[in-house]
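Lecture 7, part 2: worked example. A protein chain together with guanosine-5'-triphosphate.
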Amino acid sequence: MAGFFSRLKEGLTKTRDNIVHGIDCVFNGFSSIDDEFYEELEEILIMGDIGVNATGDILERLQKQVKENHLKEPSECKSFLIESIKEQMKVEETAYDFEHEQSIVMVIGVNGVGKTTSVGKLAGLLKAQGRKVLIAAADTYRAAACEQLTEWANRAGVDIIAGAQGADPSSVVFDAVSAAKARHTDVLICDTAGRLHNKRNLMEELKKMNRIIDREFPDAHRENLIVLDGTTGQNALNQAREFGETAKLTGIILTKMDGTSKGGIAVAIQSELNIPVKYIGVGEKLDDLQKFDSEQFVNALFDVDGQA
Ligand SMILES: Nc1nc2c(ncn2[C@@H]2O[C@H](COP(=O)(O)OP(=O)(O)OP(=O)(O)O)[C@@H](O)[C@H]2O)c(=O)[nH]1
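Predicted complex, written out as structure tokens:
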């Protein structure tokens, strides 16, 4: 955990330089809390990719606190700003219910965002919690995808169901669901293609896989996690919106948070889409994925020593 936190902190260095440096300038540069002060803060949060809506909510909460606590000095309200950002990012406890139930997790997103890698890491994470995990290689389109996923399954120490290259992804899902039922698997995680001949095919394929799961295992807890690359900033929002038209998204896996200057996107995504960021990835190794923890994230972002 400590290792993860330091990687997260390290990963957020560029974001920190971007946002926190600006925020500090505002806190130090203003002698009173006035409209101009809030405007400057607003500009910095928006520039840091926190998003217009989230920034509005964060500052509204801050203004309320400033009034209630009769604050006069900008420096006095920094901790309230940090608290307000944490508040903005809280994830409901129930968001992780699927980890403890018999569930089927579809992992979706455009190619290259880190889907396959995240499927492997998530399998490892759940296995470590004592869950019986099965992986389905439903990306039959990309030649190396299955091989890559098999390596991840080995690393995580879980079973994998795969089809031949070019096989119907839905048939792989069908086989995997049958296997999950027969083997009393706790969590079935399905990797899906990020690219097909065209976008319409991709979305149709997703719908078909979902129909099969609905039909074959109606009692399973369903989870549709979209993987978004944290370095792509606002583009990630558009991807989530597009996939959201086809599948009911229940959570986000935000990858590549090591080395992005746009870490603020985590705040924006959650607020703009109203979908919780459930996991974040900070590297390419098995243990480089963890449950999203708003407290930890904001501490890392502001270099607050919440943890060693
Ligand atoms: N630095 C870093 N790299 C990551 C992270 N997650 C994934 N990657 C890398 O991103 C690249 C793409 O990852 P994949 O898992 O193959 O992406 P994908 O979405 O499955 O791609 P397709 O199979 O082409 O659809 C790989 O080189 C991964 O090692 C992360 O959290 N941090």
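The first strand starts at residue 103 and ends at 108. The chain has two domains: 2-88, 93-291. Keep this in mind for problem set question 3.
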